[in-house]
Records
---
Amino acid sequence: MESLLEQYAHVVGNDVIDHLRQLAYPLKGMKILHINSTKEGGGVAEILNRLVPLKKELGIDAQWEIITGNRDFYQCTKKMHNALQGNQESISDYLLKTYEETNHENYERLASRLKEADLVFIHDPQPAPLLRFCNDKKGKWIWRCHIDVSHPYRPVWKYIREFIKDYNASIWSLSTFVQPLNHPLYLIPPSIDPLSEKNIDLPEKEISDFLQTWNIKKDIPIITQVSRFDRFKDPIGVIQCYRLVKNYVPVQLVLAGGGASDDPEGQQVLDEVRAFAGDDPDIHILELPPDAHRTINALQRASDIIIQKSIKEGFGLTVTEGLWKGKPVIGGDTGGIRLQVMNHHCGFRVNSPEGAALRIRYLLRHPDIMEAMGKNAHTFVLENFLITRHLREYLTLIVALLYGSEETIELTLPVHE
Ligand code: UDP
């Protein structure tokens, strides 16, 4: 049976895989621990799910743990998330105390692993205080920020910064997100995995079965947004846009999403979306379980246009997923969407429901342009946003952090077994 790395070689070529093996060589047996706050739902879990097994296959002792908390903890971290993305949020002392105490409890549970790891990657603000409790750490700690912190609500950033500043380094998705800190700052945009259930090629039959199951018509264009039900994803704006398009051409809208276990606002937003959609038979709201990867894959492939009308977006893996499937993407002109949706090349960036509707109508009128953009989209992801590029940058960062002060670093290409 082919190894995971051999399977990737079919997509990206042998040279790319050899390069990964070379970079991983000095890291063999190293203990690397990733910590975030959910195993399913949202982009971070999606990435770790694939990155950790690949690191293992390269001989690195990579592990992934989550921190857990009660309702107050998640309420606090959701408020932090919203504040770091620019909302004015006041967070009570009680919630902040819960946040710190929950991290302390999680630290006690994970202490031996955290102390002995050569590298600890802490993802996003939820587990950021863990470092504070680790007095006798062996390895280096890196904070990985996945959200758009370009214009944070200052009081909340100042509070979080006190935890972040003690890390050995931090990683950001875009240069515009970076906040001044006195440690090395790295830029690494996220990626998708072409071999995951979410992204592998699917038989045509599976795609048409999907449409039948959900009562979605085959012969009317399908516009799709896949997202957690979160106000920053602007699902209401998507429905407004759909209505503006529908005044001129027949079209169906699919809003697919579910909750993440660390996101307490999802149900409320979903209720608002359902109420706003009313009983329009051409709006399909698909509430999906967190492991519905193949369903989302089929939906993205069945769609004519992917929309991601976010008003704030850390990166937007759903955009990458749509592009990879050869679909033009209409994306909100914000955050990581700017890195992915090149105007007129693989889609359009928009600032309003009206702008989105205009671009969708244009594309539906020009199927040839839609097809050409779809091809560009796939190539763009192949060259820039696959997991192999992501892993290469992680490995380079780790080698630099661990061996950067040495005069030479031995990067040997191991003999293929
Ligand atoms: N996703 C999913 N089920 C859902 C909603 C989203 O599997 O109901 C996936 C989606 O396909 C993507 C990730 O979760 O891979 C969302 O990542 P993104 O960066 O777009 O947004 P985030 O949720 O991290 O803000």
---
Amino acid sequence: MPSHDHNKQNVVHVSYQQGASVLTNRYLNRGTAFTMEQRKELRILGALPPTVETLEEQVERAWAQLCRYDKPINRYQHLANIHATNTTLYYAIVLAHVEAVLPIIYTPTVGEACQNFSNYYVRERGLYLNKLLKGHFNEVMKQSLYDNVDIIVITDGSRILGLGDLGSNGIGISIGKCALYVAGAGLHPARVLPIVMDAGTNTERYLADKEYLGMRERRLDDEQFYGLMDEFMESVKTTWPSAVIQFEDFSNNHCFDILERYQNKYRCFNDDIQGTGAVIAAGFLNAIKRSGLPPLEQRIVVFGAGSAAVGVAKNIAQLAARLYNVPVDAVLKTFYLVDTKGLVCDNRGDKLAAHKVLLSRKEVSAADAQHLTTLEAVVQFVKPTALLGLGGVGPVFTEEIVKSVAANAARPIIFPLSNPTSKSECTPEDAYKWTNGAVLVASGSPFPASIVNGKTMKPSQGNNLYVFPGIGLGCAIAQPTYIPDDLLVAASACLNALTTPEQMEADQLYPPLDDIHNISAHIATEVILESQRLGIATNTDLPREKAELLKLVKKSQWVPHYPADVHVKLA
Ligand code: NAD
């Protein structure tokens, strides 16, 4: 479990000759913040300019440097450099400027960074696994720089954001998510580990690019791929038995199978499927509350039938069942999924991908199915009260479509959730305008407030950051044997309840994101309580009382700082 002493790790052991090596250790280095006394002790007096700065002063200077870069990608690189030289400073900057930094270290800029990751590559961060190391994963993990690991984020780079197969460049997404675990939940920076399982790439551009640093070959077949993944899961269990594994941006042909294969055997979850679902469900159930139309009276059309869409529908059904005491199956029947071929239904004459079967409409006739090939046609047919966008193709929620949804409900629910901004199904501003402000909106990307009929409308954002850090933190502390869906539902219910009545009154469906440390602590607490209730928490030393547990969780959260009483022990 994360040590409760993270904030007191203040004794630096380095040998006499290695004094200066503190400057090249990203976790120990504090650069200009080393006091004269510490510099003397470390024998690095001449290695730094004479000015001694506080962490706050360093943040201010680093921020001014960052602001001199116009392009977000250069700002990303600037922050990456700071992480590589002084990780404490990096997180102090992130936390001092959360809203401005998130779009740089995560979407949308992280997407651009990933697309060209090899071309920008300067130095290592994380772990690179591939078939050349097969049979040796255990050894590779033991040799790595990581002694104790709380969180692992692993991708195979096969479907990064909406950008497709980026091969080993996908490690940028694991790096970004790990940074959010630290910034969002207070995991210790040296105990979060980004990993790429480099199983090749089918992207011609990389195969032909001499600068591409991953395995320059086509993706492995399923047998080889699962051979690597099986060894990876077992090796983590052996090397870092307390780690939580988060699967990230695996393509649809693998992500569901991976979850099914490992979910009940290892401490793991998939953020794209389960995390997204938990976040959107929390906001959606708040929208339902505001709409006045209970879950079973909603008709919900979802544009897109991929991992996010299926996860969202299932989580909404589970949370609605918990909050309204209705059967999960009955809520699932209120969903109508639309993919590239139209309404997902049994009688349309094609073989559905396995993950779509649960939500496939059984009652729609073959004759009807033939006409239900577009979103417009499905909206006319279903007369939905709510519309979710998870197709990742851009502005398909037209004025006509939004207005026809508004005709079916006094407070229609429209969630354009696709990222990045250019892929959003509509802008919240348009949705407000077209419905005269009646709509309840949450978007995937951040959008500015807009003024409709003289009233300022601030759209809610269903950001994944709301739950995965808290889930990871809770699981790192409670050490459940595995991560059943109930833990995700508990997280979702917690987030749903954290929105205050005043925020709800203003149609805010989520609490403010700058309160993320506190939100994560609450979610972690509920996740621990649920693990205890289910009897799967292997850490049995924890209190079972909520307030006491919340206190313990908050105490375990690492915050960037230089301990005042650092002792440098020269051997
Ligand atoms: P995915 O590739 O698994 O799924 C995309 C789905 O959209 C597929 O079912 C596909 O058939 C369908 N689709 C694509 N083009 C279509 C078209 N022209 N007409 C109809 N259907 C079409 O991707 P995913 O992981 O499910 O993510 C989908 C989107 O959701 C992405 O844009 C992603 O950014 C977004 N997302 C948002 C959040 C969030 O807001 N918190 C979280 C995760 C994913």
---
Amino acid sequence: MCRHLGWLGAPRSVASLMLDPPYGLLVQSYAPRRQKHGLMNADGWGVGFFSPDTPEGAPPCRWRSAAPLWGDASFASVAPALRSGCVVGAVRSASIGMPIEPTASAPFTDGSWLLSHNGLVDRAVLPLSAHAESTVDSALLAALIFDRGMDLLGDTVSEVAARDPQARLNILAANGSELVATTWGDTLSVLRTGDGVVLASEPYDDDQGWEEIPDRHLVHTDGDAVHMTALKGPA
Ligand code: GLN
């Protein structure tokens, strides 16, 4: 299903993360290499980032769309000028029955965190939330994770998986100083670049440094050290 990417480290352009790499999110929108569910990611895209140019405590900047990333000439022209040390980007393959609208595209936010979901979860096991940005499963899941708190991300994922054993729950979230992710049913890789850390559903180039994260793990980085712990869950 969808593909996402997070960066935490030295400021760099959004284009250098999403559009320029040979197998970046732009190429993944029509030709992903490791996607197990869905063929392409044409149902929208989004990017969020923390900017030193917004007032202290302001919510992260976001740009989301329900159209394919490859057709967005305006974004392509502006993305080289958008620079940040903390970025979450995503391209979307809508699950069957889910709405296709800008508010259903990741990243979602509670004002402090940016969050993307790669996967599928039965909405019947998620609480209805007045804070959800859309009726898409990912927005309900984001609202639940925000309500529970990011410290409990691993527990929340394990609990949702227990309620929906078919669920796929790859989460990627960032708040400007931390980047966290889970693997639960879909792929995720990490690259340490020397000036930061990339977490991505699939490698955006053929750098030998990419490492695959095992399934059912929680990953945490401050842009330097990367910690991984196994998640609790049914066998
Ligand atoms: N289920 C979510 C949606 O419909 C995420 C889909 C995905 O990971 N492809 O948008």
